[in-house]
């Protein structure tokens, strides 16, 4: 294959709010901008995927309900659609994000096709596909099989690579390709956003963005914020990619009603990130944590738990503060340190921004995926 021929790449990811789908969508957009033909295959259009962009296509997987099935099946219709798109568009590569069930479907799709039409399968592990489902006896062996059968496997951090080797005992090589972020230009100014949020002069904006799943430990985040003194010094803005209602009672009980502002399903996260002074992430496990990177990009340092791949994203004391997992008191102390010291916040934020641009930009990361595709295509 000519080294610089444009490739035809199928991408499957979860279309809903979540780091793996966000990363896959950004990768697809970047690949299309670089001249490759990109075909997304999923049950819904990924929520950040722009309409009408050149070389960017979407193929929905249609699921029919059958009474016989107590549990609806997605894997088989997905694999049939993958095979169809691979054949009709002569895909070079099927790149699946999040192993379950995408990698299994891709392996099946590949084996349904005659040899000359088979795409190479690249599987990117994002986190709980290894750390949660990989431990599950009902999933682990199928994940392991799909990883062994993939033409290449990548993980979004060295920590996740090592966890995958440890938990799934896959003896194959796993490439580490960290996540990247390519922000859209904010649509409003920092002042406009702060006005919308009712932030007074000198009041710091703490930001948390995630899908609020249990691993994010929103309970711990709120408990830690409730300990921070003085309360008048900050407001916590939660950009919720999931329903916040289950946490409303805790907010009330902690007396945080006037400190916590929630915005659900925000598409323009950049507007809020540019207005933020400090990020807060209290996850109990995290293979990378895109939210930290998104904040870093806007010069906003974070206080976060030192779990999983987070220490690969931000170094403690250099790009933010890392604290032990599960320790509300330590989280609150770290928050107070940075809330009281805008100069330190600025220094950490500037270093964080430099690191994000150097290591975790599209320019740094997308060529690594392109090189990987070319390697597996031979
Ligand atoms: O939310 C998702 O879409 C997947 C989720 C997961 O549980 O695997 O997020 C993971 O992928 C993100 C993108 O690579 C990472 O930034 C997150 O750290 C990671 N989440 C966990 O490991 C818990």
Please tell me the total number of domains.
2
Number of helices: 15
CATH topology label of the largest domain: Rossmann fold
Q: Cα-atom Rg, whole angstroms?
A: 21 Å
User: Shape from CA axes?
Assistant: globular
Question: Helix fraction?
Answer: 40-55%
CATH architecture of the largest domain: 3-Layer(aba) Sandwich
Q: Tell me, what is the CATH class of the largest domain? A: Alpha Beta
Overall residue-averaged pLDDT value = 96
Which strands sit side by side, in order, in the main sheet?
3-2-1-4-5-6-7
Low-pLDDT segments: none
Largest sheet: 7 strands, parallel
Give an overview in words:
Strand 9, helix 9 and strand 10 (260-264) form a beta-alpha-beta unit. The chain is an alpha/beta fold and 378 residues long. Helix 8 packs across helix 13 and helix 11 crosses helix 14. The chain contains 15 helices and 13 strands. It has two domains: 8-182 and 361-377, Glycogen Phosphorylase B (Rossmann fold, 3-Layer(aba) Sandwich), CATH 3.40.50.2000; 190-359, Rossmann fold. The protein is globular and about 65 Å long. It is 41% helix and 17% strand. The protein has helices spanning 19-33, 75-88, 99-112, 128-131, 140-149, 158-168, 190-197, 218-227, 248-253, 269-273, 290-297, 310-313, 328-340, 342-359, 362-377; strands at 8-12, 37-42, 56-60, 93-97, 120-125, 152-155, 175-176, 204-210, 234-240, 260-264, 278-281, 302-305, 320-323. The strands form two sheets. It has a seven-stranded parallel β-sheet with strand order 3-2-1-4-5-6-7, with helices on both faces. The model has no long low-confidence stretch (mean pLDDT 96). The site of ligand GMT has 20 residues, from helix 1 and helix 4.
């Amino acid at each position: 294959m000519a080294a610089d021929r444009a490739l035809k790449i199928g991408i499957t990811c979860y279309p809903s709010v979540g780091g793996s789908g966000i990363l896959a969508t950004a990768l697809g957009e970047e690949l299309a901008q670089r001249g490759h033909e990109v075909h997304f295959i999923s049950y819904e259009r990924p929520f950040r995927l722009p309409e009408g962009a050149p070389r960017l296509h979407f193929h929905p997987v249609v699921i029919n309900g059958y009474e016989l099935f107590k549990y609806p099946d997605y894997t088989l219709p997905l694999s049939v659609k993958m095979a169809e798109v691979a054949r009709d568009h002569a895909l070079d590569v099927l790149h699946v994000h999040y192993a379950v069930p995408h990698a299994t479907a891709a392996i099946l799709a590949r084996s349904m096709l005659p040899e000359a039409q088979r795409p190479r399968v690249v599987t990117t592990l994002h986190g709980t596909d290894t750390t949660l489902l990989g431990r599950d006896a009902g999933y682990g062996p199928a994940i392991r099989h799909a990883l062994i059968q993939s033409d290449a496997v990548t993980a979004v951090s060295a920590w996740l690579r090592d966890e995958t080797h440890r938990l799934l005992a896959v003896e194959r090589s796993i490439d580490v390709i960290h996540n990247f972020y390519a922000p859209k230009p904010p649509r409003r100014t920092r002042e406009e956003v702060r006005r919308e949020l009712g932030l007074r002069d000198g009041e710091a904006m703490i930001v948390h963005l995630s899908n609020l799943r249990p691993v994010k430990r929103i309970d711990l985040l709120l408990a830690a914020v409730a300990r921070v003194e003085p309360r008048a010094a900050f407001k916590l803005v939660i950009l919720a990619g999931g329903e916040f209602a289950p946490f409303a009672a805790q907010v009330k009980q902690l007396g945080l009603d006037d400190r916590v502002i929630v915005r659900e399903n925000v598409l323009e996260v950049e507007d809020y990130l540019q207005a933020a002074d400090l990020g807060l992430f209290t996850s109990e496990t995290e293979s990378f944590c895109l939210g930290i990177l998104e904040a870093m990009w806007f010069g906003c340092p974070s206080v976060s738990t030192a779990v999983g791949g987070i220490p690969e994203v931000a170094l403690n004391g250099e790009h933010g503060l890392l604290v032990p997992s599960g320790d509300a008191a330590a989280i609150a102390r770290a928050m107070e340190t940075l809330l009281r010291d805008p100069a330190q916040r600025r220094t950490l934020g500037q270093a964080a921004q430099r690191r994000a641009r150097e290591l975790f930009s599209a320019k740094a990361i997308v060529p690594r995926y392109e090189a990987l595709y070319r390697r597996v295509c031979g």
